[in-house]
Amino acid sequence: DAGVIQSPRHEVTEMGQEVTLRCKPISGHNSLFWYRQTMMRGLELLIYFNNNVPIDDSGMPEDRFSAKMPNASFSTLKIQPSEPRDSAVYFCASSPTGGIFQPQHFGDGTRLSIL
Amino acid sequence: DQQVKQNSPSLSVQEGRISILNCDYTNSMFDYFLWYKKYPAEGPTFLISISSIKDKNEDGRFTVFLNKSAKHLSLHIVPSQPGDSAVYFCAASAGQAGTALIFGKGTTLSVSS
């Protein structure tokens, strides 16, 4: 079975540009999570969706960040305009929703560098 | 304020010996605890979990112990192998499937042969 797929794997862009990160969750998983990893703060939750509906976006750092999940098989995380301090590794994860707790499965991340 | 803490940034162990990674938490509402392993340039991979109603869970060489009164959990790897060298993250959740995880900052384990 295919795991969580993220694209691009690497993104280098100049400050002020729009950045769009993409995620395809595991088929049948109705919960999708976006995390960011930095040296200072470790792995922190940005936002998560259940059944395509945003449940908690309190981790989104600023209005420059937005996330969408138009259908069960696709999500985007957008940064506009991007700033150097947004440089980090962004992970997407998915899991089943409801019932007995099950672990989240992570993609391999997008390494974002804002110059 | 960190709700999940891994106070040791790194740990070095010889092959064949036991590795013990520790994790402390502050939120009494957490009811599931997980350990993830991460290699460079890859995403975290689920390793083992434990429910708050248990105090031990074992899977092959990996055992997780939970001490609720101390709000402490640990991961034991016996015997340690060079392939176990990675960053280990402790994570916790309060709720059923589909709720977010709170992660510790990780411990880098190095197993030398």
Spell the H/E element sequence of chain B: EEEEEEEEEEE
Rounded mean pLDDT of chain B is: 95
The profile of the biggest β sheet of chain A is: 7 strands, mixed
Helix/strand order of chain A: EEEEEEEEEEE
Give a description of the structure.
The complex is a heterodimer of chains A (115) and B (113). Chain A has 115 residues and is mainly beta. Chain A has strands spanning 5-7, 10-13, 19-24, 31-38, 42-50, 53-56, 65-71, 74-79, 88-95, 105-106, 110-114. In chain A, strands 2, 4, 5, 6, 9, 10 and 11 form a 7-stranded mixed sheet that branches. A 4-stranded antiparallel sheet of chain A has the order 1-3-8-7, with no helix packed on it. The radius of gyration of chain A is 13 Å and the shape is globular. Chain B is built from no helices and 11 strands. The radius of gyration of chain B is 13 Å and the shape is globular. Chain B is mostly beta strands. At the A-B interface, β4, β5, β9 and β10 of A face β4, β5 and β10 of B.
Topology:
The complex is a heterodimer of chains A (115) and B (113).
Chain A: E1 5-7, E2 10-13, E3 19-24, E4 31-38, E5 42-50, E6 53-56, E7 65-71, E8 74-79, E9 88-95, E10 105-106, E11 110-114
Parallel strand pairs in A: 2-11
Antiparallel strand pairs in A: 1-3, 3-8, 4-5, 4-9, 5-6, 7-8, 9-10, 9-11
Chain B: E1 4-5, E2 10-14, E3 19-25, E4 32-38, E5 45-51, E6 56-59, E7 62-67, E8 72-77, E9 86-93, E10 102-103, E11 107-112
Parallel strand pairs in B: 2-11
Antiparallel strand pairs in B: 1-3, 3-8, 4-5, 4-9, 6-7, 7-8, 9-10, 9-11
Which descriptors would you attach to this protein?
heterodimer, A: 115 residues, mainly beta, seven-stranded mixed β-sheet, four-stranded antiparallel β-sheet, globular, B: 113 residues, six-stranded mixed β-sheet, five-stranded antiparallel β-sheet, 0% helix
